[in-house]
Structures are given as structure tokens and as C-alpha cells.
UniProtKB/TrEMBL annotation:
Main location per the UniProt record: endoplasmic reticulum
PANTHER family: XYLOSYLTRANSFERASE OXT
Domain of life per record: Eukaryota
Location in or out of the cell: Endoplasmic reticulum membrane; Golgi apparatus membrane
GO biological process: chondroitin sulfate proteoglycan biosynthetic process; heparan sulfate proteoglycan biosynthetic process
Name by which UniProt lists this protein: protein xylosyltransferase
Keyword Secreted listed: no
């Protein structure tokens, strides 16, 4: 073994590039030392080779068949200190996955500070003691055992136990009493022990595991201490004052493109005497640009220019709130409370009724606690982990111990705060306050920081008695749907999100309103269910709504003025082809030549909904004739076939992208896919499955060359659930028409097809041309009729020779032109047959039609 290891060590040394720099020499020594240690402890089997890049092929002189190679790569830009953290898998994973040098260096720096205990404070002060109590004071030694535990709320074995550790643990969880038992055990509770169990101190003589000079209870006895923490109960809210008033500042933190939902929210909550500050995510040009005009009309509405990328769970969410609060103090000196809202919020009661409640409760702070055991909350919330935000992602760096001495709490990040707290948090005067400064350091590296920062600050400060355990909000939680890790693309964590309210939730919504003090609810999304918002507004105004366009909703998908996000060229190519098709249909019966109506540029694309159903996208485009523009309504066509000679056990089969597993909808509504897209097929069973037959079906993906690209084996599940399966292949998708066949019990029961839009840039991509080993097994499920085969060959040839013509012909098969209208003045050639043309403002479907519910007036 020794000779083998030494030989292996020599090989390993040759694998690392030589360098004359001190850093590289030290780095090399660390890697060699670690790899030698690993090889000695875990010598590989004969069929396994460890190596660095190509060096893995040189370990043995004689190559072996079926050899497995594991790549062990290192990033030499990582600092020396990070190299010493090589055993921290979270750190290494984050650094490896980060793409920019800046982010890698930041992660490295955070990891080093964490390792050296320089990242967060070890202890913070608590300025909210329980009256008449002294933290850490002993109540005495009490008879106690497993059969009748005096402090039964929480207990744990703590290696290295000291009295202070136990008191700190119970303080953190807001328990009033802490007890040490048998040298290693700590118990917490809120019930003061009866003196009938009191023993002499000699019964509590077992030395503490972490400090032998202290005693930590006995075998059947516990020494109990006062933690000094106040009771968990908060003072009740006073009843609203009739006609009472309070000036409110609203912070709207907005994301997405739901402009009309935002303006509708503003219309309902707007009052001239309140203040409104809007923060739009830095990646949302359209929303920011569209809302800027409000500043010109309304002096009490401001858009902050200090914009950040407010990703789910990001540290930037707290930064946004603190910066917005600081700006509000500069903008207006009279407001008394601040509430934060999002584009997904909607009021349940009038703003006047909220003012009446606030007038009766001056100085109160409205926050909602988690309602769980604190230890469970800390773990599920990830508060005991270190996260760092860069590259618009929250990276998990490692584990940490929270500062001792303070109570930890949290829950919702939607809060209502008194001005006094906002002034304390943002004023330079209090910048060096030990508690405030320490919490800001702590939450700089915390996931979902706004969900607990204000809770912890208020409960441990002079404001603790102002805490009201009610944030005046209502949310709809369904853990089975809301906790599906749908945010993994932006955070190294599996979090939960509330559901969107739908009309079917009306009874639940109104019942909560009847028995709870709530003024706002979330989430609402007009693109999913606008009807419930209409009912709420009718209830708010105590009137029947009769707006034009009340049951319609429009949401932007693209605008040519957008700088961010990057232009989707496949979407524009399809939209231009559909615009040409719409014009050709408009002119097919015209006796007048209209040569100037050739579509030239896409202006915008808007998704259109009516009665809570998606009816298509509106493509607004320019033509060659000056000052003439059109808008056409197009709708994707279903390309799914259910075979008659097979059991009808599948009710839904559709391909798209951007699937939302929580709401079970495809967010890419128009369904345009390119070579770099990640297609997902969604499917739903009918519930008519015979339990005596097979419970497994197969999804076979065929590319435009009829090659099998993937086969997924899926179980037949509950008919109420929408299932999804993503096509996960490493290479770009070949342009053209793809097929998916669904096979059950040996029979093809359904088939659908989808288009990967060809683009000029595809010529630079490398497509997988290899034949899948499963080809022979599954190719029998391809269409066998000659017409289908010839059609696919002809399309492939046309795409190769003329992409533009191919798109114009193919998109006509995948989309239907529903209607078309002109904006502004009609085209010149329309004057003779004006009755054949319609103005967009006179329709009920165009994005230019009336929509007073979404206009702030």
C-alpha cells in the first residue's frame, strides 16, 4: 500500500500546474497534502481513477476497460484561506457554480470570515427584560426527572453545556425559564416551578460539561434560572376610533410586468393625504418606465431611483425596505405608519377603516410571528445558515451559530411599522447602537431577511411593548403546492410561497375577514383569477361594478423599448410572421391594392384574458406606411391528438416552458420555443384508469429527424393534479417540429407536437446527432403514414433553404389569427372600404380599448 500511495502522490504532484508565485506554491502544497490524505484513507478500486483533467488518463500504464473517471478541478482564483475550507461542501459548491470572478471572490471572503468568526457578532444586547427579573439569576435546585419534567416546553442535550449556554438557548426561543440537568441537558419552559419541588443545592452538584467549575443540575434534579425574557403575549389592539385618521406611507415593492394590476391597486388605495413610494425591480424596465408618468400627475407618488434586484429570499429585499423608509422620511415629515405592499396585494377593507384602527393604536408595530417552536422556525427558515447574494442569486455558504443574548422571532415580511421605529432604524444618530448594528451585520448574510429583522429588532429593543402579533394581512397557504422548491433557480434553498386567491376561495376569504382584523390579502393575480378581485372591489365600494372591460385583463409580455431582459429573437420572429399572416387575411377580399401594409417591426406583445381565461396574445406592429400601426389577436392552437382505439385516460397534454408548479400554469403563454429553451410537457389523467392494468406510462420525445431524444417513465396519478416533465438534455434543441408520444400498456394513447423556432444564429450551435440506444425500441410509435413523413421532410428542406418562408408557413399551422384592428388613423387604402376595418379603440379585446378599472384618476 505504501508504494502504491507514494507512486500516486508523485502522479498527483505532476497534475498541478507549476508557478513561481508564493501563493501558487502554498496552494499547491495544500492540494497535494489533501489529495495524499484522501488517497491514504480511501484508496480507489481498480476500476476508478482520480485525476485532474487529462491527467486522469495517465495514472496507470495499462488502460483498463470500462474505467470510470472522476474530474477533480480547482479554481485557482479562490483565495488561500478558502482552500483551507475545502471540506465545506456548501462553500465549494457555491464558488464552483458562480460564473463571475467578483462573485467568487465575495463568496470566498464570506467563507473566510465565517471560518474566523468575523462575520457576525457572537452576542447582542437585549434591551427588553421582563419586569422584576434578572437574566441568569437562579431560582434554586428542584426535583425533576423524565417522568415529570418541570420545564417541558423544550429540551436538548448540549455538548459543552454551561449555565450561560442554557439561558441563552431559552432566551433565544422566548422561554422565561431555563434549567440545567445532569451536566449536559438543557430544558426550557414558561411555567415557574412550585416550591414544593425545591431541594437543597447539594442535589445539583454535577459539573457542567462545558465548564467544570460550574454545576449543571443533578441526576434527578434541575437547577432553574430566570431568562429575563418577557411573556410571548402582546397587548391587544384597541378598537378603531370612528372617523379617526392617521397618515400612512405605503411602500410598493414591484416586480414583473403586471402594470394594470399595479395601477388598479393604486386606484383603490390612493388618497391625496397619504404618501406612496414605489420601488421597481432593477430588471423591470417596462414597469418602471410606465409608472414614471405618475410622478408628473401626483405629487404624493414617488418612484425611487435606487433600484435593486429583489430576488426571492434575497438580502436585497431588506435593503430595499430600509432605503425606501429612509427616503420616505426625507419626502414627508407627517406620516405616522408605513406599510409595504406588492403587486400581488389587494385591500379587503377601506383605507379609511385602516386609518381608524391606526388612530386608536398610535406607536404600535404590526408584525406576524411564525407560530411555531422557535428552534423549528430557525431551522426551517435557514437562519442557522449563511447566505450571500451575488449574480442575482442567494448562495448558501455554510452553517453558523446565531448571536446569543437575544430573542429570535419572525414570520411574515409584510409589516406595518410606526414612524418611531423607522427613524430608529434609518437615522445616523442610532447607527452605532450595538443591537441595531449587530442585527444589520447578521441579516446581511441571511435568507429572507425581511421576514425576521424587524421582529427581532423590536422584541429586543425599547420598542418591545409596541409589538402587535398581527400584520393585518391574510395569506392562503397550501403547503402541498406552495412548497415545491420553485425558487431553486435563484436560491440554494427550498422555500414556500402562498397560493393565488381564486374565486373558489371566496368563502374562506370572507370567513377569515369576519373573525379577524385583516385589511390586505395576498396573493392575487389577474392573469389567473381576476373575478375574485372584482368581487372584493364591489364589497369595498358597496356597489355593483359596471366598468367597460371589467372582465378583461391585459398583461405586457414584450415592448421594443425594453432594455432588460434580453430580447427574445424567436418570439419576435414568430410575431412578425403572424403579423404578415394577419395582414394577408385582412386583405384577402380587398379589391384595392395596399402595398404599404407590409409589417416591418413589432412594437409590443400583450397577453389577453377574459373571464379568467387566456384568449391569446396581442401583437402590436408597425407597417411600411408611415404612422400606421395594427394590433392582431393570435392564439396558440392545440396540436394534441388522442387516438380513438386507445383508452381515453389522458385529459391534458401540452408542451411549453416556464411551468409554475404552484399555480400549475405555463407562464410562457404564447409557447414560443427556441434552441436554448427548456421545454416541459404538462399532462393530466382523467381518473378513469383501470387499477388492474399497468400504472406506468411512457413519454417519448422525438426530434425533427425522428430520433429518440428522451424517454420518461411516469406513474398514473391523481386526476386532480397537473403533472409535468421537463426535457433535460445538455445540447441545444434542433430547430423544427418535435413530437411527444404517450404510451400506456403498449399502446400509443396520445401524441402532440411543438415547434423549435429556427434562427440564423442556430448555425453556430452544435446539435446532438447521435442515435439514442432506445431508438429501435420506441421508433415504432412515430407516425407511420406516408403523408406525415413527406410533410416532415418537406418542412425540414424548406427550413434549411429559407427560414423566413418556413416560419410564415409553419406558424400559420400553430397559431390562429382571431382578429385585427388599426391604431390611430386608418391606412390610406382603407378609406374606400372603411366598413371592413376597425379601430382598436372601438374593440373590447385590443390593448387600446377602454379599461377604467386599471386607471388611476
Amino acid at each position: 500500500m505504501r508504494n502504491w500511495t507514494e507512486k500516486k502522490f508523485q502522479k498527483t504532484a505532476q497534475e498541478i500546474p507549476r508557478s513561481t508565485s508564493y501563493f501558487s506554491r502554498q496552494w499547491k502544497n495544500i492540494l497535494l497534502e489533501q489529495k495524499l490524505h484522501n488517497l491514504r484513507e480511501n484508496p480507489p478500486n481498480d476500476d476508478v481513477v482520480f485525476g485532474h483533467g487529462e491527467a486522469a488518463k495517465k495514472v496507470d500504464d495499462e488502460p483498463r476497460k470500462e474505467r470510470k473517471t472522476f474530474e477533480l478541478t480547482f479554481d485557482y482564483s479562490v483565495t488561500l484561506n478558502t482552500a483551507r475550507l475545502i471540506k465545506n461542501s456548501s462553500t465549494l459548491s457555491a464558488i464552483k457554480r458562480a460564473t463571475t470572478k467578483k462573485c467568487k471572490e465575495e463568496l470566498s471572503d464570506v467563507a473566510c470570515k465565517l471560518k474566523n468568526n468575523q462575520l457576525i457578532p457572537e452576542r447582542l444586547p437585549n434591551y427588553c427584560p421582563r419586569k422584576g427579573s434578572i437574566s441568569g439569576s437562579s431560582l434554586g435546585c428542584f426535583h425533576d426527572n423524565n417522568q415529570s419534567r418541570l420545564l417541558s416546553s423544550y429540551g436538548v442535550k448540549l455538548p459543552g453545556l454551561t449555565i450561560q449556554k442554557c439561558v441563552d438557548l431559552c432566551t433565544q426561543s422566548a422561554f422565561m425559564y431555563a434549567g440545567t440537568h445532569n451536566g449536559k441537558e438543557c430544558y426550557c419552559g414558561n411555567k415557574k416551578p412550585s416550591l414544593e419541588h425545591l431541594l437543597t443545592r447539594t442535589y445539583c452538584s454535577v459539573a457542567c460539561d462545558g465548564q467544570s467549575s460550574q454545576t449543571c443540575g443533578g441526576v434527578d434534579s434541575t437547577e432553574i434560572f430566570d431568562s429575563g425574557v418577557p411573556t410571548r403575549d402582546s397587548a391587544k389592539l384597541r378598537d378603531p376610533i370612528i372617523n379617526g385618521t392617521a397618515k400612512i406611507a405605503f411602500i410598493l415593492t414591484l416586480n414583473g410586468r403586471a402594470l394594470r394590476q399595479v395601477t388598479r391597486l393604486l386606484r383603490v388605495i390612493y388618497r391625496p393625504h397619504h404618501v406612496y413610494l414605489i420601488h421597481v425591480d432593477s430588471r423591470q424596465d417596462f414597469l418602471f418606465r410606465s409608472l414614471l408618468q405618475l410622478e408628473l400627475k401626483y405629487p404624493n407618488i414617488r418612484l425611487t431611483r435606487k433600484r435593486q434586484s429583489s430576488i426571492w429570499g434575497g438580502a436585497s429585499l431588506l435593503d430595499v425596505l430600509l432605503q425606501s423608509m429612509e427616503q420616505l422620511l426625507e419626502v414627508d415629515s407627517q406620516w405616522q405608519f408605513v406599510f409595504n405592499l406588492s403587486e400581488s396585494d389587494f385591500p379587503l377593507r377601506s383605507i379609511e377603516s385602516l386609518e381608524a384602527l391606526l388612530a386608536a393604536n398610535p406607536g404600535r408595530n404590526f408584525l406576524k410571528s411564525h407560530g411555531r417552536q422557535t428552534r423549528q422556525f430557525i431551522h426551517k427558515q435557514g437562519l442557522d445558515r449563511v447566505f450571500h447574494q451575488c449574480e442575482s442569486r442567494m448562495w448558501r455558504v455554510g452553517d453558523r451559530v446565531l448571536p446569543a443574548g437575544i430573542r429570535i422571532d419572525g414570520g411574515s415580511d409584510w409589516v406595518g411599522l410606526a414612524r418611531s421605529v423607522v427613524e430608529f432604524v434609518t437615522s445616523p444618530t442610532h447607527r452605532n447602537d450595538p443591537l441595531l448594528r449587530g442585527l444589520k451585520e447578521l441579516y446581511r448574510y441571511t435568507l429572507l431577511p425581511a421576514e425576521s429583522f424587524f421582529h427581532v429588532l423590536i422584541l429586543n429593543s425599547k420598542f418591545c411593548e409596541s409589538y402587535a402579533d398581527n400584520n393585518l394581512r391574510m395569506t392562503l397557504w397550501r403547503r402541498s403546492q406552495g412548497c415545491l422548491c420553485q425558487h431553486r433557480h435563484v436560491v440554494d434553498w427550498c422555500g414556500c410561497s402562498p397560493m393565488v386567491f381564486r374565486t373558489t376561495d371566496w368563502t374562506h376569504l370572507t370567513s377569515v375577514m369576519a373573525k379577524s382584523t385583516v385589511f390586505f390579502a395576498r396573493k392575487f393575480e389577474a392573469a389567473i383569477d381576476q373575478s375574485i378581485m372584482n368581487r372584493l372591489e364591489e364589497q369595498l365600494t358597496n356597489s355593483s361594478l359596471n366598468y367597460p372591460g371589467l372582465d378583461s385583463y391585459w398583461e405586457s409580455a414584450y415592448h421594443r423599448a425594453d432594455l432588460i431582459p434580453k430580447t427574445n429573437h424567436a418570439l419576435l420572429a414568430v410575431s412578425l410572421s403572424l403579423s404578415k399572416h394577419a395582414i394577408s387575411l385582412l386583405l384577402q377580399n380587398s379589391v384595392v391594392e395596399c402595398s404599404g401594409l407590409r409589417p416591418s417591426r413589432i412594437v409590443s406583445i400583450t397577453s389577453y384574458f377574459r373571464h379568467d381565461h387566456y384568449l391569446g396574445d396581442l401583437i402590436h406592429f408597425e407597417v411600411d406606411e408611415n404612422n400606421v400601426e395594427f394590433e392582431t389577436l393570435v392564439k396558440p392552437l392545440t396540436k394534441t391528438i388522442h387516438f380513438m382505439n386507445s383508452p381515453r385516460i389522458l385529459s391534458t397534454l401540452q408542451v411549453g416552458s416556464d411551468f409554475d408548479p404552484k399555480e400549475q400554469v405555463l407562464r410562457n403563454r404564447l409557447g414560443v420555443l427556441s434552441s436554448t429553451s427548456k421545454p416541459v410537457v404538462i399532462f393530466k389523467w382523467t381518473g378513469h384508469v383501470n387499477s388492474t392494468t399497468a400504472q406506468l406510462s411512457h413519454l417519448i420525445w422525438f426530434d425533427p429527424d425522428d430520433h429518440v431524444r428522451a424517454v420518461h417513465h411516469v406513474n398514473l396519478t391523481d386526476a386532480s393534479k397537473m403533472n409535468n416533465q421537463m426535457l433535460e438534455i445538455d445540447t441545444p434543441l434542433k430547430p423544427g417540429v418535435w413530437l411527444i408520444a404517450v404510451v400506456y400498456d403498449g399502446k400509443k394513447i396520445a401524441m402532440t407536437e411543438f415547434l423549435i423556432v429556427p434562427q440564423i444564429a442556430d448555425e453556430n450551435l452544435q446539435f446532438d446527432e447521435k442515435m439514442n440506444e432506445l431508438q429501435k425500441i420506441w421508433e415504432n410509435y412515430l407516425p407511420v403514414d406516408a403523408k406525415s413523413k413527406n410533410n416532415r421532410r418537406e418542412k425540414a428542406l424548406l427550413m434549411k433553404n429559407d427560414i423566413s418562408t418556413y416560419l410564415e408557413k409553419t406558424t400559420a399551422e400553430y397559431y390562429a389569427i382571431q382578429d385585427i384592428c388599426y391604431t390611430g388613423h386608418p391606412p390610406q387604402c382603407a378609406t374606400i372600404q372603411l366598413h371592413d376595418w376597425q379601430s382598436c379603440s372601438n374593440t373590447d379585446w385590443s390593448s387600446f380599448s377602454q379599461d377604467p378599472k386599471s386607471k388611476l384618476s
